[in-house]
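Design job #97: recover the sequence.
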C-alpha cells in the first residue's frame, strides 16, 4: 500500500497570502521585530514559534498572549479569508477515486484544521488528520509525518508528502519520505530545494510510483 500526505497552509489552501496581510499587526502585537528566519517560523508549531522568538530575544508578551493574538489572526483567516488552492480539490478527488489513502498533516491547531475541512467539504478525502498538537515535536522534526504513516499503516518509504515550507520539506525527508515541494504564494520564498520534485502548480504533481 502507498499513501499521500498533504500539508494544509500554503499547499491545499492559500491562507499564507492572508497571513501576510495580518503579519504586521501580529508581529507588532507579540514581538520586538520580525524574526530573522521567517521561513523557519512560518511552518512551525505555535510552541516552536514561541521558542523561536525567545531564542532571538524578540518575544515581548507572555506565551498566553502570543496564543491569544495568533488565535485572533487565525479566526479571521480560516473563517473568512482563505480559499482552496487551484487544483487542490481535483487532485484530492483523483487520488480518492483511486482508493489512495490520504492524510492531512498540519502544524496548525486542530480546531482551525477542522474549520477548513468543514468549510471546504474535504473530510471525506482524508483517512487521518494529524495536527502539530498531536505529536511531541513540530516540523522540521519528522514526528507528524511518521505519525501519519503509522496511522495509515504504510511504511515511510511508501509515503509521498506534498509540502510548501522549508521546515515541512525537511520533516518529510527526515521521515524518509518522497517529497513534492510546492512553490506557491508565500511559499515562493521558502527553500524547498531538498524536495525530490519541485512544482509551482498542484496540477504538476507527479508520483514516483503508480497507485
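Job complete. Output follows.
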Amino acid at each position: 500500500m502507498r499513501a499521500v500526505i498533504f500539508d494544509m497552509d500554503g499547499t491545499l489552501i492559500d491562507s499564507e497570502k492572508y497571513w501576510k496581510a495580518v503579519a504586521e499587526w501580529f508581529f507588532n502585537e507579540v514581538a520586538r521585530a520580525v524574526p530573522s528566519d521567517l521561513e523557519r517560523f512560518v511552518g512551525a508549531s505555535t510552541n516552536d514559534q514561541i521558542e523561536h522568538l525567545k531564542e532571538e530575544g524578540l518575544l515581548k508578551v507572555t506565551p498566553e498572549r502570543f496564543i491569544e493574538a495568533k488565535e485572533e489572526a487565525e479566526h479571521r483567516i480560516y473563517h473568512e479569508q482563505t480559499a482552496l488552492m487551484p487544483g487542490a480539490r481535483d487532485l484530492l478527488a483523483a487520488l480518492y477515486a483511486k482508493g489512495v489513502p490520504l492524510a492531512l498533516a498540519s502544524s496548525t491547531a486542530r480546531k482551525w484544521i477542522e474549520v477548513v475541512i468543514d468549510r471546504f467539504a474535504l473530510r471525506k478525502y482524508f483517512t487521518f488528520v494529524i495536527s502539530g498538537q498531536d505529536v511531541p515535536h513540530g516540523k522540521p522534526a519528522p514526528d507528524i509525518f511518521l505519525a501519519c504513516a503509522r496511522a495509515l499503516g504504510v511504511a515511510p518509504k511508501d509515503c509521498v508528502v506534498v509540502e510548501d515550507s522549508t521546515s515541512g520539506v525537511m520533516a518529510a525527508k527526515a521521515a524518509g519520505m518522497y517529497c513534492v515541494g510546492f512553490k506557491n504564494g508565500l511559499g515562493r520564498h521558502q527553500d524547498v530545494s531538498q524536495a525530490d520534485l519541485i512544482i509551482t502548480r498542484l496540477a504538476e504533481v507527479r508520483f514516483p510510483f503508480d497507485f
